[in-house]
Structures are given as structure tokens and as C-alpha cells.
Write a structure and sequence with these properties.
With 436 residues, this protein is α+β, with helices and mostly antiparallel strands. The protein has helices at 6-29, 33-37, 47-66, 98-118, 131-153, 218-226, 238-246, 284-293, 301-309; strands at residues 176-179, 182-186, 202-206, 209-212, 255-258, 261-266, 269-272, 364-371, 391-398, 414-417, 426-427, 431-433. Strand 5 and strand 6 (261-266) form a beta hairpin. It is globular, with a radius of gyration of 21 Å. It binds N,N,N-trimethyl-histidine (AVJ) and fe (iii) ion (FE). Belongs to the EgtB family.
């Protein structure tokens, strides 16, 4: 990283912070103040909490840790510490009202831009290659995705609009591809803004496996529903079966059957479920059950990453399925350009050398794996980002959704959640071992 011109990092940091703030502004001005302070779901914070939390984290890392400044409003730190108060409790806290939250985040940002102007991108691990600026931009974008989930859960008329992805012809390529067995480099030690849980790069031996060319579509998932998949305990793990029975889960979240038709609610609009689109809003248990019904399984996290990064021409690992270039609109559905996944088979320019499509963008993909540290993991810069979540409670999701910004999306990027969660923009693809 140190051989790269520091000015390039300054520009990249400025562009990433600005893109994130534009999105935050959109998500917090497209509804009125009562909608910002309301809790739309016990799973989510009020939007006004996310807004001030974004500013508070930016103040902590860029103004206090990097620039050594005094706290602007030390008394609010505890309100916006995600570990002090569970989401369900946040509406009853004395939160900054919308106008004050906006003013606070704006004040932090103006100071940050001054710091950025004079920042050196060498020295400590926090400042090297502008890491802290990149981390803060990724943090804001992650909360923007969280706020978009809140918008999806919110009842009431449509507040957000975006053009639909380009229609594509029905995908007629092979349904699966073989990923050859052998060693593969997983994770990274060189990507400047990669977060702690993506590090370090390490070798893994992966037996040969087949993986779906595209994410599982609504049409394919409907076949599982119509075949009685939700009524047959053979397809479900014991916990998964208990969970769907207890909560009467019979279809993806936001779906509803209307006579002979399946409808879904999407950002305030009810529409027919589009068969070609990757299935969205399923929990890990549903993804796992579908895969078993299909005679397949979920890919492990290492298999997913090998499918996304392995270059058979060199044996090395790339940053993205299409190579090392940063994601462009021709590669993947990212950045909330659209408010839905693109049809299966979209983005031929983003396919991997082996022909796997839509690994990046569209839907987060559940993997079979628990969220665990890589060998040699070191928490940086704080344990509460990743380390406290390691263990068997969380499953890993990969690849990012249409709601993920490119700054927070890489072939190595790891997301995680509880296996029951489905308000997130989650889908999946399936795999099978070659010898099975
Ligand atoms: C990585 C998406 C699980 O939202 O809980 C935001 C990201 N960490 N603020 C989350 C995060 C701290 C995190 N996930
Ligand atoms: Fe956060």
C-alpha cells in the first residue's frame, strides 16, 4: 500500500465519504420527522438513531482517534453505543431529534474534511493508506443498508424510487459449474481497506465442487413451496423446523398468496413475485432446507470465496470474480442504483472465469459456515466490530446485495447474521461436492 500515491487515497476517501453521506441524506429526508423517530420494527433502530450513530462513530475514529480532538458532545456517546442499548430499547432513549442529529453529523463531517486535507497516509495502522477513512465510509454505508431495511419494513406509502435493472433474456447457460479442487488463497493481507475479519490471506485446500451459476430464483423457490417444502420436516434441520412451525413461516418474508398468485411487498408497493429474480428475504433455515430438497447443499464460505476469486489461469486469487478492477455498473448490481435484485443471468461482464454470475451484488448469499476468525486473526481497530460475534451463533453471508455500496463489497468481504434473520437482503445459491 505504501508505494501508492497518498493523494490517490485522499481522493478515494473524500469520494467514498461523500457518496455515503449523499445516500444517508436521501434515506433520512425521504420521510418526515415522525417517521424518522418512529420504530418501524423491533428489529430495527429508529432512523434518527442510525443517523447520529453514523456521526458519532465518525467522530470517535476520525476526529478523536486519528486527529486527537476533544469530544464535541461527550454525553451522547453512550446513547449511540450499539452495545449499551439493544435496538428495541433505542426509541425510548433521549435521542437527538432529527434536526439536531443532522446538525451533529454535519458538524463532524465538516471537521473531518479539514482533517482529511492535512492527513498523512503513513505511520500507524489506522492512518496507513487512509484505513480509518475507508473504515468510516464502510461503516456509514453499512448503516445505509440497515436504514434501507428499515424502509422496507416500514408500513405506508412508497418513499423511495429507483429505475429497474435492465431486463435480460432468460438465462440459458449451464445451471452449475465445476470449481476444480486444490489449494486456494482465502482472505487478504494486501487490500488496503479490508476489515479485520477478512485478514490475513491464508491457503485452503478445497475439494472439487459444483456451484450454481446464478442465485436461486423466485421461480425455483416457488417449486419448493408448491412441492410442500414448508410442510415436510425431511428438508429442515431440527432447529429450522421448530422455528418455522413456531412462527408459522410458509414463504419468504413480505410474500403473500392472493388466490392463485404470489404477491410481495417491496418498499411500499405490492407486486407479483417476478420468477426470474433471485429469491430475497429468506433465512438461513429456508436456504438450507431448499438446498436439501434440491438434492444439494449450501456452499461453505471457503467454497463461495474460491468460486468468486479463483483464477484458473494463474492459480491465484483476484479481488472480484471479473478481475482486480473496482466494480462498475456493468459488473454488478450494487449501491442502491436499483431497489431490487436483477434477473438471474444479468451482468455477463461480471462473471467469473469459470462462468459463475452475480456473486457480487443483487442478494447477500447465505453460506453453510459459522462466522469464525481466520488463522492469524487480530482484532483491529476494535473487538466489537468482528471478534465479539465469532462463534456458532452467526452464519456467514457473502457477496453483497443491491443495497451494498462498492466501498463495502469485495471478494473477501464477510457479513454475518443469526440463521433466523430474513428482513436482510438475503438469498442464496446451492452447491454439491463432485464426489456426491
Ligand atoms: C457487519 C452488518 C453485521 O450492522 O451489525 C455496523 C456492521 N458494525 N456498525 C451490523 C456494523 C457496526 C454489522 N454487520
Ligand atoms: Fe455501527
Amino acid at each position: 500500500a505504501s508505494d501508492v500515491d497518498p493523494e490517490a487515497f485522499r481522493e478515494r476517501a473524500l469520494a467514498s465519504l461523500t457518496t455515503a453521506r449523499d445516500r444517508t441524506t436521501l434515506l433520512t429526508t425521504c420521510v418526515d420527522d415522525p417517521d424518522l423517530t418512529a420504530q418501524h420494527s423491533p428489529l430495527m433502530s429508529p432512523l434518527v438513531w442510525d443517523l447520529a450513530h453514523i456521526g458519532n462513530q465518525e467522530e470517535l475514529w476520525l476526529l478523536r482517534a486519528v486527529a486527537g480532538q476533544e469530544a464535541i458532545r461527550p454525553e451522547i456517546d453512550t446513547l449511540y453505543d450499539a452495545f449499551e442499548h439493544p435496538r428495541a430499547e433505542r426509541p425510548s432513549l433521549p435521542l437527538l431529534p432529527p434536526a439536531e442529529a443532522r446538525a451533529y453529523a454535519g458538524q463532524v463531517r465538516r471537521r473531518v474534511l479539514d482533517v482529511l486535507e492535512g492527513a498523512s497516509f503513513r505511520g500507524t495502522r489506522l492512518t496507513e493508506a487512509g484505513f480509518a477513512f475507508g473504515m468510516v465510509a464502510q461503516h456509514e454505508q453499512q448503516h445505509d443498508e440497515t436504514m434501507l431495511i428499515t424502509h422496507q419494513l416500514r408500513r405506508g406509502p412508497q418513499a423511495l424510487t429507483a429505475p429497474d435493472p435492465e431486463p435480460v433474456a432468460l438465462f440459458t447457460g449451464p445451471s452449475e459449474v465445476l470449481v476444480p479442487g486444490g489449494p486456494f488463497t482465502m482472505g487478504t493481507s494486501t487490500e488496503p481497506w479490508a476489515l479485520d475479519n477478512e485478514r490475513p490471506a491464508h491457503r485452503r485446500e478445497i475439494p472439487p465442487f459444483f456451484i450454481d451459476t446464478t442465485p436461486v430464483t423466485n421461480g425455483a423457490y416457488l417449486a419448493f413451496i408448491e412441492d410442500g417444502g414448508y410442510d415436510d420436516p425431511r428438508w429442515w434441520t431440527a432447529e429450522g423446523w421448530a422455528h418455522i412451525r413456531r412462527h408459522s413461516i410458509t414463504a419468504p418474508l413480505f410474500w403473500r398468496r392472493d388466490g392463485g398468485q404470489w404477491l410481495r411487498r417491496r418498499f411500499g408497493v405490492t407486486e407479483a413475485v417476478p420468477p426470474q429474480e433471485p429469491v430475497l428475504h429468506v433465512c438461513w433455515y429456508e436456504a438450507d432446507a431448499y438446498a436439501r430438497w434440491a438434492g444439494r447443499r449450501l456452499p461453505t464460505e471457503a467454497e463461495w470465496e474460491k468460486a468468486a476469486r479463483y483464477d484458473p489461469a494463474t492459480g491465484g486469487s483476484m479481488r472480484y470474480p471479473w478481475g482486480d478492477a473496482d466494480p462498475g455498473p456493468e459488473h454488478a448490481n450494487l449501491g442502491q442504483r436499483h431497489l431490487r435484485p436483477a434477473p438471474a443471468g444479468s451482468y455477463p461482464a461480471g462473471e467469473s472465469p469459470l462462468g459463475v454470475r452475480q456473486l457480487i451484488g443483487d442478494v447477500w448469499e447465505w453460506t453453510a459456515s459459522d462466522f469464525l476468525p481466520y488463522p492469524g486473526f487480530r482484532a483491529f481497530p476494535y473487538k466489537e466490530y468482528s471478534e465479539v460475534f465469532f462463534g456458532s451463533d452467526h452464519k456467514v453471508l457473502r457477496g453483497g446485495s443491491f443495497a451494498v455500496d462498492p466501498v463495502a463489497c469485495r471478494g473477501t468481504f464477510r457479513n454475518w447474521d443469526y440463521p433466523i434473520r430474513r428482513q436482510i437482503f438475503s438469498g442464496f445459491r446451492t452447491a454439491r461436492s463432485q464426489d456426491a
